[in-house]
Structure formats: structure tokens, C-alpha cells
From TrEMBL, chain A:
UniProt GO MF annotations: exonuclease activity
UniProt-annotated stretches for the region Disordered: 84-133, 248-268, 307-328, 371-390
Domain of life of the source: Eukaryota
Organism of this sequence: Apiospora aurea
Keywords on record: Cytoplasm, Exonuclease, Exosome, Hydrolase, Nuclease
Record protein name field: Ribosomal RNA-processing protein 42
UniProt xrefs under InterPro entries: Exosome_comp_Rrp42_subfam (IPR050590), PNPase/RNase_PH_dom_sf (IPR027408), Ribosomal_Su5_D2-typ_SF (IPR020568)
Biased composition (Low complexity): 250-268, 307-326
Acidic residues bias spans: 112-127
Automatic annotation (TrEMBL), chain B:
Species lineage: Eukaryota, Fungi, Dikarya, Ascomycota, Pezizomycotina
Domain Exoribonuclease phosphorolytic: 34-173
Cited PANTHER family: EXOSOME COMPLEX COMPONENT, EXOSOME COMPLEX COMPONENT MTR3
Protein known as: Exoribonuclease phosphorolytic domain-containing protein
Chief site of localization: cytoplasm
Subcellular location: Cytoplasm; Nucleus
Keywords annotated in UniProt: Cytoplasm, Exosome, Nucleus, RNA-binding, rRNA processing
Region (Disordered): 1-26
Top-level taxon of origin: Eukaryota
Family: Belongs to the RNase PH family.
InterPro entries attached to this UniProt entry: ExoRNase_PH_dom1 (IPR001247), ExoRNase_PH_dom2_sf (IPR036345), PNPase/RNase_PH_dom_sf (IPR027408), Ribosomal_Su5_D2-typ_SF (IPR020568), RNase_PH (IPR050080)
Length: 438, 274
């Protein structure tokens, strides 16, 4: 964090002014760029820019920061844990006299083996279904973040990577989408590249770009069945979206081929990938999507990840009303406090203790004549009575880096503000829905 | 003449050793407190501050289920190298390191991304507690090492925060308060029963953990310096989330009591000697 947002050249006086205007209560916070506290920076977004990927997106914020995300998928063999292998062969002994252990273990299976294992599978599909689905692994997703000017093992970059990964994996729903059959799965590589220098904390930008890239990700349609070696349809037009969408304009819900969304609300996915929002608090104000300057005076900053689950309404209802008006079913996935760079800002010195501003003299003005004759061994605190005050208390108009943490209620309010109905998360999701997914 | 070429058995009759049966696994009672913590400061003489933390092992019979052991050393405050640019604050560097034998799979000497991630969390938690502007132009390194295996990330982090807080106090670095870490989790036995919130969860004891929350807390200021929540909460309401946070704050307070007690003992010992 500290390294991604260094080189901020604001004097203590400027910081104090910024903090003062952001913590105003009566007219609300006044932000340097004139936004309202919940307003995002305008952005341009496009998807499908990289032809060699399964899905890609680019987002450019108005301040000039720009990120590109490419999603690549590979088929990978699922390793069978040894105890599971034993359990499955024991379970099969009742069905077939010969132990058919090779069907799951080895890639080369005879058709005879396959047949037997197939009908056995159908028998214990019910029982095994839960276990099989549970055998997904978070290793199936690999995420890399690249920020220019930073090493990829820099702690700030690692923190960003783990935060984005955590949001994807927190509810365990995402990896289930990568399950092909018992023996194979998709391995998804997400490569997130910030093209521009990190002008502001890049987390919201990277998260939104990843969101769009995942929405645009398509996987080839599976032609093989059950536990066969996977065979895929060559036709890219028949590829299915990773996040399948229900078509609300036409009633052909069973049609698997993806549609080009003509209108924004035409195709709304049932569930959507997570987004991570950056929220900060200054005084009692909660401010979304802070710029670099605003973050430099934050009292506390929090990254909140939310995802939209399938909406609670039943199918016919959601077909009758347009997708934009359906209420979203938001889930909280992860929350992390972020070390605000304000803790690294230089403190200001109040005039009362600043020798250059004759502050030490003014402290002693009532006894100007005796000040010279004061004993030399007087302690520093007694010499400067204001020094102790500035050390412990805030002086109006003098910047001091925040100490301590955030109040419990403030952290809760920040999260609640993200999740609330009609709140910022919904607004962002609505905005991203307008992006044409190609 | 005695036969000295062979190793003979004992002359008299022997009784084979009889091993006492270990007590059965304690009934999975819902603890209303965190596991017992052993905390000791000043264990590394070469460091300016150090501490060692060990967590009680709830079921010691199980093989490979050992308790969490953490050691932390604080080097500094010391002056920055001449080549470093001016800093108005103390420069805090935190490392969380797993010992090579600390995990089921041996770890190499190089730190991997999860250790770096924990290091950032620890840094965030401590930076709020340390009064950084009292040491311009100086640096401090905090190294937490995890010496034993079998615990998940959040428990390790909360332990790291607690032990680092004690080590910082041992090093005599000014803090606004002793920060302590605590974990609470939303666990469920199976699909039928309603999930419950437990303090300081033992991962092996619970079938599935739905969500967990790790908090670093300053009790006297009533402020949270670091919070890490992940998982999936049923429903979008904030009630469960708030309760989870409250429980982890209680865990923090318990851990903080251990720190304060240990520091008091250290102070008393120091007064007794001099």
C-alpha cells in the first residue's frame, strides 16, 4: 500500500485543508474534484479486446489510469486423492466383480471400463454428487497482478492479488463453475495488468476490469459426456459464457448459444462476479472511490468485496420486469482494512511550538522578562507547555497523521453503506451492465 | 564367568510397560472463551524486543495436531542507513515467516505470497498502534515466525498480532495501546442445523466454516486497526456480520488481558532485580 501510493507531494497545510473540507458535516464533504461522496469517477470500458483469450476487458478511468485483464482457460486433470480412490473402489465392489480401478485413475480407459464405470456412476451419483462438487480446489484459479514500477513480489502487489483472489474464492461458488467432470477441470488464469502508472490506489479499477473480463469469458461447449476425456465444440460461436445469462427479451431460455445483447438490459446474468470497492472514512463522512489525494488524509480505508447471487425472485417474475428494476441479491464476500497512506504523511508543526514562527516566545509572553532568567535545567515540557498539547491532541488547522484505528460503528457503517439497497454496489453493477459484452 | 560377548536380557522377571489409555476426545463443548495462551516476552537476547506465544491444544491426542507456536523479534528503533531518504516517521517493516517445518508440506526459505499477505495485515494492525512520529529517521523490523503447523491463516494472523504487540512493548516502542488479535467464525455442523458463531475457532473441530473474521483491536481506545473478513454470510443482512465482529472483539479483549498480565509480570521482575 505504502509503495503503491508514494510520491504524493502535499504539504501538511494542504493535507490539513483537505482533511477539513472532507470532514465537513453540514454541507457534506467537499471533494477536490467536486464529486458527491458516493460518486465514482467516470470510466470507459470495453470487452473482448484480446482475441487470444477466453475473455478480456479494458477499463480506463477519467484520471488516466487504465487496466487490461485477460482470462485464459486450460483443461487440467484433477488429481484423485488416495483415500478417495480407495473409498470409490470399495464402493464399487458390490456392483462389479472385477475391481475397475483404472477407469478413474488412468487417462487411457477402454470402452468396457467406461461403460461399467458409467452405470456405476449413475447409481451413486446421488451420494457422490455432493462429494464431487465439494472436491473443487481453490488452486483452479490463478491470478496475477502486474503494476508498472513494482516488483511482482512487492508486498503491495501481493496484497492486491490476494484481495482479488479472496473475493473470487470466498464463497466457493466460482470454482464450481470450472468443474468439467470427475477427472478434469478448467484451470483459469487471470492476468491483470495496470497499463498506466499507479496514479491512485488501483484496487477498484483492477476489480472492475476483472469483473468485466469474467463476464465476457466464454468456455468452449463440452461435447463429451460424464467422465470421458473432455471433447469440445470447435465452434467458438457455440461457446458458453462462464457466467450464464438469462435472456429476458426472448423466452428461449433453453437456447444455449450466446446472444449479442442488443440492449443493455437484454441479457442479465443470473449471478455476477464479485466487485471490490474502496471506501474511506474522514471524520464522520464515508467517501467512495477516493482519489490519491483524498486517500492521503483518510482516517481509515476499507476494501469491501460483494457479489451478486441469483436473484431471489422466481423465473416468470424476472422475465416480466426488466432486469434493471429487479432487486439485486448482494452478498458480502470479504472485507479488509487497508493501511491508509495518511499514516505516512509528515506532520505539521503548530505555530505555538514552532521556533521559526516565534512560537516558543509567544508561549512565554506573559513573563517575557523572566523567561531569560528561567533556570536552564527546566524540562522541555515545562519550557513548552504547548508541546505536550500538540503531542497528544489535535490542533485545528495543523495536520497530524492519524493514530489508532477506526471505531467499530464506523467500520460497520462503511460496509452497510456498500450493501444497502440502492447503494453504491448496485449503482456500479448497474453501470457495468451497460457494457456491451462481445 | 559372565558372557560378555552378547547383550543378555535381564536376569529377573520383567513386566511389560502398560500405557495408560489417553482420555477420550473432550466433548465438543462450545467454549465461551478463547483457548489458553502462553505468552512470554524477552526470549531472544539479541533482539531489542521479543516474545513467544503458544496456544493451548484442545485435543492433544490427535496425531499431527499440534499447538500454534509463534515467536516474534523486534529489531529497532535504529537509525536508517545514510542512503535512505528522510522519513518523518518510523519505518515499520513486518515479516511473517513460516519455519520450514511449520506446515504439513515443507516450505522453502523463500517467502511465498501468503506469508507476504499476512505481513501486510500485520503491518496495518501495528501501524495504527505505534506512535510513529516520535522516531523520525529510524526503522524497526518485526519478524514473526510460526514454528508449528496445522492452523489456518486467520488464527496465525491473530496470534502474530498479539505476539508482535507484546514484543513491541518489550522493545519499549511507544504505542497508543497494546493491540491484540482475535478471531471469530461462523461455523455449521451440517446443512440442517443453523450456523453458530464461535470465538477463536479450531479448524479441526468444525465441519465447515462459512465465514471468519480476524480483528486487531485497541481496547482502551476502543478502535480497530485491522480487520479481515472473508466468507459468505447467509442473506444480505448486517446482523450476522455485526455479531461476528463483536465476538472477535471479545476474543481480542481476552488476548489483550494475557498481554497486559505478562507485561506486568515482566515489569515486576525487572523491579525486583534492580
Amino acid at each position: 500500500m505504502s509503495s503503491t501510493s508514494q510520491h504524493l507531494l502535499l504539504s501538511p497545510a494542504e493535507l490539513a485543508y483537505l482533511h477539513g473540507s472532507l470532514s465537513l458535516i453540514t454541507p457534506g464533504p467537499i471533494r477536490p474534484d467536486g464529486r458527491s461522496p458516493t460518486q465514482f469517477r467516470p470510466l470507459t470500458a470495453e470487452t473482448g479486446i484480446l482475441p487470444g483469450t477466453n475473455g478480456s476487458a479494458r477499463i480506463c478511468f477519467a484520471d488516466g489510469t487504465e487496466a487490461v485483464v485477460g482470462v485464459k482457460a486450460e483443461v487440467e486433470k484433477t488429481p484423485v486423492p488416495p483415500y478417495e480412490f480407495v473409498a470409490s473402489t470399495e464402493g464399487r465392489k458390490g456392483h462389479s466383480s472385477a475391481p475397475k480401478k483404472s477407469s478413474r485413475k488412468s487417462k487411457k480407459t477402454t470402452t468396457e471400463d467406461e461403460e461399467i464405470s458409467m452405470d456405476v456412476d449413475e447409481d451413486d451419483e446421488e451420494a457422490a454428487g455432493v462429494n464431487e462438487k465439494a472436491r473443487v480446489s481453490p488452486d483452479w484459479v490463478e491470478l496475477s497482478v502486474e503494476i508498472p514500477g513494482l516488483r511482482d513480489d512487492d508486498s503491495g502487489t501481493v496484497f492486491l492479488t490476494s484481495m482479488l483472489t479472496e473475493a473470487l474464492l470466498a464463497d466457493g461458488e466460482f470454482v464450481k463453475k470450472l468443474w468439467i467432470n470427475r477427472r478434469f477441470h478448467w484451470k483459469l488464469y487471470l492476468d491483470i495488468i495496470l497499463i498506466s502508472p499507479p496514479l491512485s490506489y488501483p484496487l477498484p479499477l483492477l476489480s472492475l476490469t476483472t469483473h468485466l473480463a469474467l463476464l465476457a469469458t466464454r468456455l468452449p461447449r463440452l461435447k463429451s459426456e460424464a467422465d470421458e476425456d473432455p471433447m469440445f465444440d470447435d465452434d467458438w460461436a457455440a461457446a458458453t459464457f462462464l457466467y450464464p445469462r438469462q435472456d429476458t427479451t426472448s423466452a428461449k431460455a433453453s437456447n444455449k448459444s450466446p446472444k449479442q445483447p442488443s440492449a443493455a438490459a437484454a441479457a442479465a446474468p443470473a449471478s455476477r462476479p464479485p466487485i471490490t470497492l474502496l471506501v474511506m472514512a474522514v471524520g464522520d463522512n464515508i467517501i467512495f472511490d477516493p482519489s490519491k489525494e483524498e486517500l492521503a488524509v483518510a482516517d481509515s480505508a476499507v476494501a469491501v468485496s460483494v457479489a451478486e447471487g441469483p436473484s431471489s425472485e422466481t423465473e416468470p417474475e424476472s422475465e416480466s420486469i426488466p432486469a434493471t428494476s429487479t432487486k439485486r441479491n448482494l452478498h458480502l464476500l470479504s472485507v479488509r482494512t487497508i493501511d491508509p497512506p495518511s499514516r505516512l504523511t509528515p506532520p505539521g508543526v503548530p505555530n505555538s511550538v514552532n521556533a521559526a514562527a516565534w512560537g516558543t516566545m509567544t508561549a512565554a509572553t506573559p513573563t517575557t522578562t523572566t523567561a531569560a532568567t528561567a533556570p536552564a535545567n527546566e524540562s522541555g515540557a515545562a519550557k513548552h507547555p504547548d508541546a505536550r498539547v500538540t503531542e497528544t491532541e489535535d490542533v485545528v488547522g495543523v495536520w497530524k497523521a492519524p493514530r489508532g484505528g477506526a471505531k467499530f460503528g464506523m467500520l460497520g457503517a462503511m460496509v452497510a453503506k456498500v450493501l444497502e439497497r440502492g447503494g453504491v454496489a448496485e449503482e456500479v453493477l448497474d453501470g457495468l451492465e451497460g457494457v456491451d459484452l462481445t | 564367568m559372565a558372557d560378555r560377548r552378547r547383550i543378555n536380557g535381564p536376569v529377573g522377571a520383567t513386566t511389560p510397560p502398560i500405557f495408560d489409555k489417553p482420555a477420550g476426545p473432550a466433548a465438543a463443548k462450545t467454549r465461551d472463551a478463547i483457548r489458553k495462551i502462553f505468552l512470554k516476552t524477552g526470549i531472544t537476547p539479541s533482539a531489542s524486543g521479543s516474545a513467544y506465544l503458544e496456544l493451548e491444544n484442545p485435543n492433544p491426542q490427535r496425531p499431527g495436531n499440534t499447538s500454534l507456536k509463534l515467536s516474534c523479534t523486534v529489531h529497532g528503533p535504529r537509525s536508517l542507513p545514510r542512503s535512505a531518504p528522510f522519513s518523518p516517521h518510523i519505518i515499520l517493516t513486518t515479516h511473517v515467516k513460516y519455519a520450514p517445518f511449520a506446515t504439513r508440506q515443507r516450505r522453502g526459505y523463500l517467502r511465498d505470497s501468503s506469508e507476504r499477505d499476512l505481513g501486510v495485515h500485520l503491518e496495518t494492525a501495528l501501524r495504527g498502534a505505534i506512535i510513529a512520529d516520535r522516531w523520525p529517521k529510524s526503522g524497526v523490523d518485526i519478524i514473526s515466525q510460526k514454528d508449528d503447523e496445522g492452523w489456518d491463516m486467520m488464527n496465525v494472523l491473530s496470534g502474530c498480532i498479539t505476539v508482535a504487540s507484546a514484543a513491541i512493548a518489550d522493545a519499549g516502542i511507544d504505542c497508543v495501546d497494546t493491540v491484540a488479535g482475535g478471531v471469530a467464525a461462523l461455523v455449521c455442523k451440517d446443512d440442517k442445523t443453523a450456523p453458530t458463531i464461535v470465538m477463536d475457532p479450531v479448524v479441526a473441530e468444525h465441519d465447515s466454516i462459512l465465514a471468519a473474521c480476524c480483528v486487531a483491536y485497541l481496547p482502551t481506545r476502543d478502535e480497530i486497526t485491522n480487520m479481515w473478513f472473508k466468507g459468505r454470510l447467509p442473506g444480505a443482512d448486517m446482523m450476522v456480520y455485526d455479531k461476528l465482529m463483536e465476538k472477535s472483539l471479545v476474543a481480542c479483549r481476552c488476548a489483550n488481558r494475557v498481554i497486559v498480565q505478562e507485561l506486568n509480570e515482566t515489569v515486576k521482575k525487572g523491579q525486583g532485580i534492580s
